[in-house]
Amino acid sequence: MENNYPIKIPPKLKKAKNATKDELLKLDKEELVDRIIQLEAHNAQLKNIISKNMSETDETGNKNKRQYDFSKCHHRRILLKILYFGWDYHGLAVQEDSTQTIEHHLFKALVKTCLIESREKSQYHRCGRTDKGVSAFGQVISITVRSKHPSDIQNLAESLSTEIEYCKLLNRVLPKDIRAVTWMPIPDDCETYSARFDCKKRKYKYYFPKSSLNILAMRDACSRLIGSHDFRHLCKMDVGNGVTQFRRQILTADIVAINEGGEPTSMYVLVLEGNAFLWHQIRCIMGVLLLIGEGNEEPSIINDLLDVETNERKPQYNMAIDVPLNLFECTYDLEKVSNWVYTDELKCVIENLQKMWALQSVKATMIKDCIENLENVHYTINKNKSVTEMENCESNVVARDSIMVYSDGLTQGVKPKIYVPLLKREVCSSLEERIEHYMKKKKLDHNIVT
Q1: pLDDT, tens only, 55-96
Q2: Which of the ends of the chain has fewer CB neighbours closer than 10 A, N or C?
Q3: What is d(CA 323, CA 86) in angstroms, rounded to the nearest whole number?
Q4: Distance (Å) of CA 75 to CA 121, 164, 383
Q5: Active-site residue among 131, 238, 254, 304?
Q6: Is the dihedral of CA 294, 300, 301, 306 positive or negative?
Q7: Are 143 and 311 spatial neighbours (Cβ–Cβ below 8 Å)?
Q8: 8-state DSSP, 63
Q9: Stated pTM of the model
Q10: DSSP secondary structure string, 308-319?
Q11: Rounded CA gap, 307 and 319, in Å?
């Protein structure tokens, strides 16, 4: 994610020192509650750190020491492509209060296999920071790892074919739902090459069932996203981290059928490609597209939300859930001069994925079989309704098709009984109001600390 900072915002403060009794007595109830919540969160983080330290200690009470002498090793810079299913993880980035992150397991594997000495010394960059529940089939990291060969011959064909099998080593110790797929050597004249800053394009996919959605209307709406726009009304504004510019360029946006047939259970995918994306941008876009597909909004609502001069504040709406979102592909200019190195480990990755697919497909088939059985029961119960009764049905459709909510679970929050158009809803704070609020909050926190 690329950020510009035309408006200066104070940096985040270090942890506050203990306040005196007199200082605490001056705080109002809301400020005291906020302070208690912060302290409880900090205590939880400390407990987790202690727990992690204890887990790294052997039964004798002595810290496990690495015996590998990295000073005697050759090293090389590489791009490493990994895939993971993020459903059961708290996101990609390491967190103080959780070990259930992709980076926690990745660095644990990198250190355990002695490919790196530590994260701090590895010159690590990630392409995209995926959030809780989000998956990636094409996540790329840049990192300095151990090598078999000295730097002057590392990129020769023979050296590449006999190099350490990075993916195989990592996959032996990584969880089954995190896999290293391939790696690419970074040439000597590109030592500062970064998976994040040198990425040219990022492609995301969002999977969903057809249900009763109007796919043509959704595709019409997608076409209006293409180009350079201010997406502040189609993302979650992250002013607290210094993001005050929301113009991004969408290169492609479309909805594609994964399997044909037109059935409610047919699967489709939203494909978005751009150079960089904002926080929750794709999930907000998908949330609005679902409203369009349901017939609650016209495709032109996209134009209205992109017109930040006419509509200064974002209307309140629910974004789509995290599970169907996937960072599918990252593109680099380096691929023109260097090649991804695949080994026999690719076959093992495919076999692992096939086994995962088989199990998940069996579960999905069982659920679908159950649905069809109960739909037949529902149809049998209602087929003898009189014509008058059928005409009075809310949806005025036959009983077999009267239940169609496959896509309803893709949006966060509760679905209202009476729909209110987006432009008639309550609105969020404007960007300027958010910046002003954040600066006042930082000033208040600073006064408490000092």
Answers
A1: 554 443 445 555 788 888 999 999 999 999 999 999 999 998
A2: C
A3: 7
A4: 11, 11, 72
A5: 131
A6: positive
A7: no
A8: B
A9: 0.82
A10: TTTS-SPBP-PP
A11: 19
Torsion angle of C-alpha atoms 158, 161, 164, 168, degrees rounded to 10: 180
Six-digit token pair at 395?
């949806």
266-308 pLDDT, tens digit per residue, is: 999 999 999 999 999 999 999 999 999 999 999 999 999 999 9
SS3 assignment, position 335: helix
Alpha helices, DSSP H only, in 80-165? 102-112, 157-161
pLDDT at 385 over 70: no
For residue 176, the one-letter residue type is K
How far the first Cα of the chain sits from its last, in Å, is 34
Residues contacting residue 245 through CB under 8 Å, at least 6 positions apart: 3, 4, 5, 6
Mean pLDDT of the region 341-369: 97
Half-sphere exposure of 162 (CA within 13 A, CB side): 9
Do 299 and 221 meet the contact criterion of CB atoms below 8 Å apart?
Answer: yes
Q: Which two tokens stand for residue 435?
A: 């910046």
Cβ neighbours for 80, distance < 8 A, ≥ 6 positions apart: 140, 141, 142, 143, 166, 180, 182, 183
Amino acid at 267: M
Percent of the chain surpassing pLDDT 90: 67
CB 292 within 8 A of CB 217: yes
Whether pLDDT at 383 is above 80: no
Using CA atoms, how far residue 358 sits from 85, 200, 209, 351, 355, in Å, is 15, 35, 19, 11, 5
Helix (H) or strand (E) holding 329: strand 325-332
Neighbouring residues of 162: CB distance < 8 A, sequence distance ≥ 6: 148, 149
Residue that has been written with the tokens 């180009």 in this structure: 227
Ranges assigned E (strand) in 333-374: none
**Burial classification of residue 136, based on how many CB atoms lie within 10 Å of its CB (0-12 exposed, 13-18 middle, 19 or more buried):** buried
The yes-or-no answer on residue 304 being catalytic is: no
